[in-house]
Amino acid sequence: MTVRVMPGRARGVVRAPASKSVAHRYLIAAALASGESRLTGLTLSDDLLATCDGLRALGCGIRFEGTTAVVSGGADLRPHGELPCRECGTTLRLLLPLCLISGEAATLTGSEKLLSRPLGVYENLARERGFRFERGPCRVTVAGRLTPGTYRVPGDISSQFVSGLCYALSCLDGESTVSLTGAVESRSYIDLTLDALRAFGADDGWADDRTIRIAGGRTFRAGAHAVEGDESNAAFPLALAALGDPVEVSGRNPATRQGDRVAAAYFRQLRAGAATLSVADCPDLAPILFTVAALSHGGVFTDTARLRLKESDRGAAMAEELAKCGVAVTVEDNRITVAGGGATPPAVPLSGHNDHRIVMALAVLLTRLGGEIRGAEAVAKSYPAFFEDFAALGIKTEKIQENA
User: Fold this and answer.
1) What is the pTM of this model?
2) Predicted confidence (pLDDT) per residue in 50-70, tens digit
3) Is 298:337 a contact under the CB 8 Å cutoff?
4) Which of 47, 245, 260, 284 is labelled catalytic?
5) Closest Cα to residue 301, out of 283, 316, 313?
6) Most buried one in 73, 80, 139, 177, CB count within 10 A?
7) In this structure, is the dihedral angle defined by the CA atoms of residues 127, 133, 134 and 139, taken in order, positive or negative?
């Protein structure tokens, strides 16, 4: 799908979609809890539906009543066919350890791009503990039985590996610990996992700055929980507000632990002058931060190496698209510099790189410049109503034929 965005100013109030990060974690905890849980206020994105499909393949019952998920959990987790992860790294990394509870072989499938993303933590675990781990272009097969104990995980890789282990170890009889080595990045996402576990009755938490204690014993309790607003996706309308549009975003939790809660503060720094900002704990904000920098005074962004491992190589993708708009971007190993003040309307369509956050960041950019985005359907991965919400704020868009 190609979308043309007309230059214009946004105005009004938009509600933040439900947090994808929290929803994934609540769904899995609810699947582990005996009885029926109700999760309200969900945004039914492609990624969230992937986790639902994976949990169903493990024997969990999930049905939807509008935007409420009714989860029948507590069954013994064992594979009932392949687990389809689609293009969702969170689904793959959080569910894979749960496949090591029954001891039966399980196959998780997904796009070739998804299965090209790193799984080294689990590969090393399989090698150390004698599990089967076979990887193909669009699938990974595992078999083995996870046991309680001490697990050492690098702290500077995706927090999803840590979170996946926390869920699986919580299901075992006996206490375990997860010890993080090296620098710890994306700690806020680990906190979200521990919050979800505790919300459903598990007695898990930090023993110290680098050690997570998992009580085990599968003490999960079913319950009713509302999913808070998504700070990652709220960042796009918040960027419009930072750029001077009278836009408000409702439905956010002022006490949220989501790492992307820093978006508004980061935007203020970029609008005030060329700022140097770390994205170590908020890598999903990087594309929209680059956009605001390009439309402001520029900026320097550190801890960017992990951007290569997302749905696209986000640093390179944004550099390519911003160059079409006359903006110079320098991409280094772990640092990206965006020039400010010189953005011009693109003479050719922009590409979404099959990455939802790239598409949404470019859409904000084009509210100032005007232009087209190819591959705009990628927003369905996390924010299916993105362009509808844009329209409600007064931004005019048009879907055009791909061959026009």
Assistant:
1) 0.93
2) 999 999 999 999 999 999 999
3) yes
4) 284
5) 283
6) 73
7) negative
